[in-house]
Structures are given as structure tokens and as C-alpha cells.
What does this fold into?
Amino acid sequence: MGELVSNIDVFVNFLTRLRRISCAMGGISIDKLVSDDGLRKLADKVMDETISIANADLISRNVDNAMLLGDAEVTHFFSFFVY
It folds into this structure.
């Protein structure tokens, strides 16, 4: 069995995707990206997709449902960018 997705892996994937959005928006900082209402909606969609991919990986490896990522992890990840 391969290595399981960790919360750190998910956060790094999410951060990488946010940086791509940041670059596409002219290099605005990620904290500004998640503070703007419209861009925050986009960031939320990116986070939802990232969590879905991570959970699909966990499910495919028959991991207990208690290990699946949810709202608590999303709140934790976004807390790094809101001051």
C-alpha cells in the first residue's frame, strides 16, 4: 500500500494552487486573495476540490471514514492567511 495523504500534503497542494491564482491575478498576496469576497469564493472552491481529491485517495485505500478531511481542516488551513 502506498503512502497515505497527510494534512501537510493537502495543505501544500492547496497553497501551490493558491499561488497559481495569485500569479494569475498579477501577483497579489495570498492573504489578500483570501480576504477579497470574490477571490475567497474561488479559494473556497479550490479548497473543496483539494479536500475531495485527498478524501478520494483515502477512500481508495480503505481508510476509516474518521480519517477523512472536513470543515475543521479547511478552517485550520485558511487560518494561516487571515490576520
